[in-house]
Amino acid sequence: MKNDLTCGVVRDLLPSYVEGLTSPESNTAVERHLSECPDCAQLRTALAGAPKQAAPEDAKEVDYLKKVKRRGWRRVAAAVAVTVLLFTAGVAAKLFVIGTPIQTQGMSWVISTDVPGQLDIRVYSIWSGTACRQWETEQEPEGIVRVTCRQVLPSPLSNSGDYRAVLNTEGVNAVYLGDQLIWQGGIEISPQIDRIYQAQTPYVGDAPAVGRVLNALRFDTCGSYTL
Ligand SMILES: [Zn+2]
User: Which of 68, 126, 192, 206 lies 20 to 30 A from 200 at CA?
Assistant: First the structure.
């Protein structure tokens, strides 16, 4: 068989030839052409060298994967940091800004009607670790006045624990501090009375509970005693 392969046919065959996929007959024909055609020979050399070039590409790919992984870790770290920040901000907001509804246990109050036509309400925080924000005096239906605040930890954001409101007595029947009735129809439910009320126990045999009642009554001012 004469060497009748054209350059086009050889170039089609070269990739397979380089990988050793062509038949011995084709190999012979291709090799004969290559020995006479410098252009195709050059292409063969280039194709044969191709696998060597693949290595750096693989390395690049690995580098890229590493970068992606590094970026992934950075993203995770950023997400964790943001989560921690948000959580801290949330806790701080809860403790210093949002707080909890007012609890009468930590408060003391005085309501006076000494000035005719005026209801003078004063509320104090008796715990130094507590401050109040957003003091409000709301007039509710049926002559109910409700004094509220949010109890928070002291910070520059909070007002002091003290509050004063002077109201027109007209139409005021009862005053609440939070959910606690503290004044009704001219009778002040003092913090002492409230403590006695809170200490109530239906069971006289409950010594600690009875002790709390006696303590609230300040019975100790009458001398030492035992249950
Ligand atoms: Zn050729």
Answer: 126
Please state whether beta strands 144-152 and 163-168 pair in parallel, antiparallel, or not at all (unpaired). unpaired
Which residues have C-beta within 8 Å of that of residue 158, sequence separation ≥ 6? Answer: 96, 131, 132, 133, 152
Q: How far apart, in whole angstroms, are the C-alpha atoms of residue 190 and residue 109?
A: 7
Distance in angstroms (rounded) separating the CA atoms of residues 146 and 183: 10
Q: Compute the distance from residue 19 Cα to the ligand 1 centre, in Å.
A: 19
Give residue limits of the domains in the chain. 7-94, 101-189
- Could you read off the pLDDT of 93-147 as tens digits, one per residue? 888 878 888 877 777 888 888 888 888 888 887 777 778 888 888 888 888 888 8
Rounded distance from Cα 15 to ligand 1 centre (Å): 14
Distance CA 178, CA 107 (A): 11
